[in-house]
Amino acid sequence: MEKVLMINYQKCTGCRLCELVCSVMHDGVSNPARSRIKVMKWESEGLYIPISCQQCEDAPCVNVCPVKAISRDEDIGFVKVDYEVCIGCRSCVAVCPFGAMNYNIIDKKVFKCDLCGGDPQCVRFCEEKAVDYVDADRVSNFKKKDAAERLSAAQKEASALQAAM
Amino acid sequence: MALNRKIAYIDLSTGEIETRPIPLDVRKKFLGGRGLDAYLLYNHTKKGCDPLGPDNVLLISGGILTATCASATARTHVMAKSPLTGLLGSANMGGFFAPELAWAGFHHLVIKGKAEKPVYIWIHNGEIEIRDAANLWGKTTTETQWTIREELGDEDVKCAVIGPAGENLVRFANVMTGIKNAAGRTGMGCVMGSKNLKAVAARGTMDIEIAHPVDALEYNKRFIDQITSAKVNKTQGTLGTPFIWGATNSWGGVRCRNFQYNQCEYADDIEPERLDEIATETIGPYHMTGCFGCQVHCRAQYKIPSGPYAGRYDEGPEYTSLGAFGGEPDCKNAVTVLTGNHLVDQYGIDNLEIGSIISWAMELYELGILTSKDTDGLDLRFGNDEALLEMVDRICYRKGWLGDTLADGGILASEKIGKNSFEYLIQVKGMNNLHSDERATPALALNIATASRGSDHLRSRPAIDLYHLPEEVLRKIYSNPVRYDGPLSSEHTSYEGKPWQVFWQENCFMAVDCLGICKYHTVFLGATLPNFEDWPKVLYYNTGLEMTPEEIWEVAERCNTMERLFNLREGLKRDDLKKGDMLNHRYFDEPCRRGAPDVIGKTIDREEFKKMIDEFYEHKGLDENGVVKPETLKRLGLKKEPSHLL
């Protein structure tokens, strides 16, 4: 079964450890500017949302690439860049709906999440599991559970109201 | 790499800026962060310099591990001569500022002089610029940060700022970053204000090379597992530091009504569980947040549920806000605590100091030492929530006679108020104590009496002394990396072996402050957390620097001695109530009135206390007057200070 990165932003504490370990894992340096994942923040309301590549099935970056440098790795299920072919035109950066294709001004290269070859370090280090790595068919389960909890709470409230009547 | 992060000298009077590398031999002697700051402070100020004059230096730094692949390397240190105490000014904060400063190329800033007009410093990928801050003056801490981001067009800019309190030269104004991270103590924001410096903004995208990245990653994972598996950190991660206040209050270890009581009764509305409920109701089930790279996430998020500030977002409250706006003034409403916490965050003032000083004024008011004429009609009695919050405003804006008087800190205020007001001031070296009561815990009493920045828990507190750990466990912790064969007692009411524990903790805390990591990641609240044995590897994998546990210990001793030298130069005397290692008489004379059987009735024994100080001095290599012995200076390589290496 193909696995996907699943982000539950509610759980994110905003610590950005994912950004740190991503850059250390891939480049051997600490530098969030090199991270494939980035925590977007609305600090004045305490909202933190990690954004990374969704590894789209019909990926705009794959479609737009004029030299066919971007393709899908079927083994792990991620969209990869072939740097031998890439001409650095950044068309992929322009079309990505998530801003998950990045451009590195130091190496002058585009870069994106490669799921660390199947052991994503952002997931490994996130104790909260705001970023998780799950079977693709389980990706909506936590939302189902949340919805079910809301329903049961509503039901309890309704029966309490009925009992009070 | 981390070791190539530079030091910048910024003269606000002349506008001159100079950057220099930090030599490896200086790193080996002082590592970085607070330790190197202590060296710089001693070297760049002259004896007796005016804390609010251009000759005082403001030091802002990250630790040697800041922003590397070690856990929670988020801490920013701020140091200067304190306008509150006239001695060492030193404060440490979490958040995201120091890492950003490191990615921008710097570990240490030495800020001298005084700008003619309000300015802020902008640091971006090795470049430093002094910019106009006329439009920022008067703004609160968060308004300042958001405005700077807008002006620079970059949402990722991180700032260390002052609020109105710092501008108004309140002597215990703090430096803040983010929503609530504060370099709170000893009035570092006041020093910034005196220099017309509103903020330091940083943004960087420069690589920090990790010496051994694979090992660093793996070791970090091990470290984090060790840290998050400690029960105390799990609790911190759900209830935050209020859990400590709740636990110690039920036992009888907090201050209430300015030290008249050691327990706050009927405090259900400000118990940690109640605050957690409010956070859940106003934010949601996931309402904890953390500093850079930290998995403990000890800070709650909340919105004020009602009152004049209803709906405002903030973070915390911490133990100190619970003490300041709950236990101490005996105001037992969650909304008061949450509002007070919001006000201090916005104004940029030390919540601990302001809570203590208002409670002191409340006791003076009830005793008739202060009258309603002094308070401009304000009914400043304990339990008056509105008066409490009104006083926060008055102090931060120096409004009215009392607001202006208290804004100068306890000692100056006591001289102005006169009568016997000083006797009621719970302070050491001019700084008020944490809202904890140490009469039943001699080790903790020794800690606050001897802490280098004045009465304080984050310089040498052996908090695990309260856990009654078996002696062999204590020995395992406290006999490393330097052998200790003297007595150790599991009993928190004992005086046995406590000086060594305080001495060990002093070195442990100095070491983490030099490394730039958080105290929740070492032996502070948890006995199983990493310490000297674990740090050499972290240091080596991340920076390539090879040091033994003993060498790190020696660095810590050296840096603590540096701080001692500074304090001695500025007038520290052993038994001086205002500038010495001495406690207020109430610790010795007034027994605890409330609490558990092992607390009630307790006082600190004067003779035993004196013996503890003697023993502590011996461990530190000081003579009986608390002065550093020549052989200690020689052993630590400090014979020629100031040596002006940097």
Q: What does this entry look like structurally?
A:
The complex is a heterodimer of chains A (165) and B (646). Chain A has five helices and nine strands, in the order βαβββαββαββαβα. Chain A is of the alpha+beta class and 165 residues long. In chain A, a hairpin with a 4-residue loop joins strand 3 (38-42) and strand 4 (47-51). Chain A starts with a strand and ends with a helix. With 646 residues, chain B is an alpha+beta fold. Chain B folds into two domains: 1-210 and 439-572 and 605-646, Aldehyde Ferredoxin Oxidoreductase,  A, domain 1; 230-432, Aldehyde Ferredoxin Oxidoreductase Protein, subunit A, domain 2, CATH 1.10.569. A six-stranded mixed beta sheet of chain B has the order 2-1-6-3-4-5, sandwiched between helices. In chain B, strand 7 (119-124) and strand 8 (127-132) form a beta hairpin. In chain B, helix 2 (33-44) packs across helix 19. The mean pLDDT of chain B is 97. The chains are: A alpha+beta (165), B alpha+beta (646). The interface between A and B is large, with 32 and 40 residues. Strand 2 (29-30) of chain A pairs antiparallel with strand 13 (208-209) of chain B.
Which features would summarize this protein structure in a list?
heterodimer; A: 165 residues; alpha+beta; Alpha-Beta Plaits; two-stranded antiparallel sheet; 9 strands; 30% helix; elongated; B: 646 residues; Aldehyde Ferredoxin Oxidoreductase,  A, domain 1; 2 domains; six-stranded mixed β-sheet; four-stranded mixed β-sheet; 24 helices; 39% helix
Summarize the helices and strands and which ones pair or pack.
The complex is a heterodimer of chains A (about 160) and B (about 650).
Chain A: E1 3-7, H1 17-27, E2 29-30, E3 38-42, E4 47-51, H2 60-64, E5 70-73, E6 78-81, H3 91-95, E7 102-104, E8 109-111, H4 121-125, E9 131-135, H5 141-164
Antiparallel strand pairs in A: 1-9, 3-4, 5-6, 7-8
Chain B: E1 6-11, E2 17-21, H1 24-30, H2 33-44, E3 58-62, E4 76-81, E5 88-93, H3 97-103, E6 106-112, E7 119-124, E8 127-132, H4 141-152, E9 158-161, H5 164-167, E10 175-177, E11 181-183, H6 188-194, E12 197-203, E13 208-209, H7 213-229, H8 231-239, H9 242-251, H10 272-282, E14 288-289, E15 299-303, E16 313-315, H11 319-327, H12 334-347, H13 351-367, H14 385-396, H15 400-406, H16 410-417, E17 427-428, E18 431-432, H17 442-450, H18 471-478, H19 498-515, H20 535-543, H21 549-569, H22 586-589, H23 606-620, H24 630-635
Parallel strand pairs in B: 1-6, 7-12
Antiparallel strand pairs in B: 1-2, 3-4, 3-6, 4-5, 7-8, 9-12, 10-11, 14-15, 15-16, 17-18
